[in-house]
Amino acid sequence: MFRLADYPLDVQTCVVDFASYAYTTKDIEYIWKEEKPIQIKDGLRQSLPSFLLSNVRTGNCTSVTNTGAYSCLRTIIELKREFSYYLLQLYIPSFMLVAVSWVSFWLDKDSVPARVTLGVTTLLTMTTQASGVNANLPPVSYTKAIDIWIGVCLAFIFGALLEFALVNWAARQDLAMNTMRIRAQQQSLHMFFRNGRDAHVRRCQYGDVTHLVNGYNSIER
């Protein structure tokens, strides 16, 4: 049974038992040789496409039942998964996708199509890659190491897309505030000039009346 909690950094253990099911230890007993109980053929360690034969251990698994004791020998084979394939096909591409999504930080905030296209494309690519990884594995009820890596990458990419949305919203809010401020200043200037013009007209009218009164008084004299 595979244990995939550390996948793809996992080490799988295969147990092989050799036992007698018909004869008890009174009739037959298995014993390992003291020197080199297991011989490994040259090149066998690298013969598997996805695993490396890292270690082989021996043990005893003699069982005792109601009918007697049965001799048993156990071989424990440890297989280490080759990591180079996953490094080139999964870890480096996913890291590059995160780096590409962060390029949007250096794009102008007004370049909406470019930033949205970059963020959505990297997010969909990362999701497709995650689906491809899980399609080649049996469904398990626990979280794998590769799930944590993919989840963190998706969080970084989604965070970059969310950052753009927040920056764009904040920029639009600032633009609206600046527009309202400019309109308020224009209205203040308009009221100022209008009040100044009315005061100038009143002064002109007052001056004309004074001039007429002074002329009338001089005529009477």
Describe this structure in words.
With 221 residues, the chain is α+β, with helices and mostly antiparallel strands. It has 2 domains: 11-82, no CATH class; 90-221, Up-down Bundle (Methane Monooxygenase Hydroxylase, Chain G, domain 1), CATH 1.20.58. It is 53% helix and 16% strand. It contains 3 helices and 5 strands; from the N terminus they run E-E-E-E-E-H-H-H. It has a 3-stranded antiparallel beta sheet with strand order 1-5-2, with no helix packed on it. Strands 3-4 form a two-stranded antiparallel ribbon. Helix 1 (84-101) runs parallel beside helix 3 (145-220). The longest helix is centred in the last third of the chain and has 76 residues, at 145-220. The radius of gyration is 43 Å and the shape is rod-shaped. It starts with 10 loop residues before the first strand and ends with a helix. The model is unreliable at 209-213 and 215-221 (pLDDT under 50).
Provide key terms for this protein:
about 220 residues; alpha+beta; Methane Monooxygenase Hydroxylase, Chain G, domain 1; three-stranded antiparallel sheet; two-stranded antiparallel sheet; 3 helices; disordered C terminus; ion channel; cell membrane; Neurotransmitter-gated ion-channel transmembrane region; Neurotrans-gated_channel_TM; GABAA/Glycine_rcpt
